[in-house]
Here is the input.
Amino acid sequence: KQEVTQIPAALSVPEGENLVLNCSFTDSAIYNLQWFRQDPGKGLTSLLLIQSSQREQTSGRLNASLDKSSGRSTLYIAASQPGDSATYLCAVFQGAQKLVFGQGTRLTINP
Amino acid sequence: DADVTQTPRNRITKTGKRIMLECSQTKGHDRMYWYRQDPGLGLRLIYYSFDVKDINKGEISDGYSVSRQAQAKFSLSLESAIPNQTALYFCATSDPRTSNEKLFFGSGTQLSVL
Here is the structure.
């Protein structure tokens, strides 16, 4: 059974710092991995999707990497801003609608 | 306007009541999903639908039913609500032809069963 783990559960850093969020999964047979952002009262927003054949994806200050063999993904946020404060979730897609989510990392950027 | 709209945003109900959560989308996607989110457990799939005539159970379908009234509408019903169905419910859509199974979520419905 696929298990997705995100560590740490919560992270607080000062504004301007670069930071890395971690996601690990137990079964490497995945089609893709997605990173989402969750804001209170606003649902989830897809940030980046990495296909299993890809190593990384970039969008603005965000860079997500995927290492299938080790079962790990990272989300790198450059020059963090208070508006980046949210909960970040990763999810792996295994086909047959099996999208398995991690529990999320709650990120706080302090001005 | 939001592409994926869920109503109501919040609902408090009593044990044993039947309730319906509604979802509509303007993205033109064929695939729609219902998830629930519980603290510490992430999101779990309740039901999904690939088109109007296709309904499938997800990981935790017991106690729930769904109806796909149209391509744009997918509703979730709790036939007889119980307290452990208190959770945040999300509707989502996807279209693998255009977005590689990228999911688009509604804002969620916070349901409390007393």
Remarks:
- Residues 14 and 114 of chain B are 5 Å apart (CA to CA).
- Chain B has a mean pLDDT of 92.
- The first strand of chain B starts at residue 4 and ends at 7.
- Helices of chain B lie at 96-99.
